[in-house]
Amino acid sequence: MIKAVFPKTKQQLCIVHQIRNSTKFVQHKDRKAICADLKKSTVQ
User: Fold this and answer.
1) CA 34 to centroid of chain Cα atoms
2) What is the pTM of this model?
3) What are 1-44's pLDDT values in tens digits?
4) What's the rounded Cα separation, in Å, for the pair 42 and 19?
5) Would you tell me which of 7, 12, 37, 44 could form a disulfide with 18, CB atoms 3.0–4.6 Å apart?
6) What are phi and psi of 10, to 5 degrees?
7) Which pLDDT score, from 0 to 100, does residue 2 have?
8) CA angle 18, 1, 4 (to 5 degrees)
9) What distance in Å separates the CA atoms of residue 42 and residue 44, rounded to the nearest whole number?
């Protein structure tokens, strides 16, 4: 799915690192909600 939209993007294979890297740019108060959404999308 990511490769279809961004073909030159490197994919993060480890889910834990993907979530950590994604939340670096999220405000602390919003992290819990973002993490819950990221976990839903990666578990599928």
Assistant:
1) 9
2) 0.50
3) 667 777 787 766 677 787 888 888 889 999 999 888 877 876 65
4) 9
5) 12
6) -80, 135
7) 66
8) 120
9) 6
Q: What single-letter amino acid sits at 32?
A: K
**Residue in this structure with the two tokens 């279809």, named with its chain if needed:** 4
Closest among 30, 1, 35 to 15, alpha carbons compared: 35
CA within 13 Å, CB half, 39: 7
What pLDDT was estimated at residue 43? 65
Residue with tokens 């839903």: 40
User: H/E/C letters for each residue in the chain?
Assistant: CHHHHCCCCCCCCCHHHHHHHHHCCCCHHHHHHHHHHHHHHHHC
Question: Structure tokens of 11?
Answer: 């994919």
